[in-house]
Amino acid sequence: xxxxPHRRLTRDERVRIHTLYYQAGWQCPDIARFLGINYxxxxxxxxxxxxxxxxxxxxxxLDTPTKSRLIAYATxxxxxxIKPYAQLAAELGIHADPRTIxxxxxxERYYRRVATEKPWLGEIHKQKRLFWSNxxxxxxxxx
Length: 143
Fold this sequence. Notes:
mainly alpha, elongated, Homeodomain-like_sf, 55% helix, Transposase Tc1-like domain-containing protein, Transposase_Tc1-like, single chain, 143 residues
């Protein structure tokens, strides 16, 4: 089952939840409805402290401007698109594990696909295309 996207509550939202619960006497469902926040988030906030906890995990190696620069460089030309990710990063002076670079491209929704080749057009194909295009030009404008 996929996780739903979530965001962290700000300190002001936490203070507001605690104020509504402890001082105004509101219940969790009422607070959730009033603030437009999930019920479980409100309940978890009430059990915790007002000040938010530091997020777990290490800080990312690449910041947003660096990611954007990497994507822009990779999509600049056809030659750039076929280079390996690690080579693109090395040309920009970004020193990171190849898996990190791949994860950056995936998080920015940049995917690679194998390009298909155009089919060879023989004389018969060219004549049929020309006939169809001439026919399409003479169609009435109502269609």
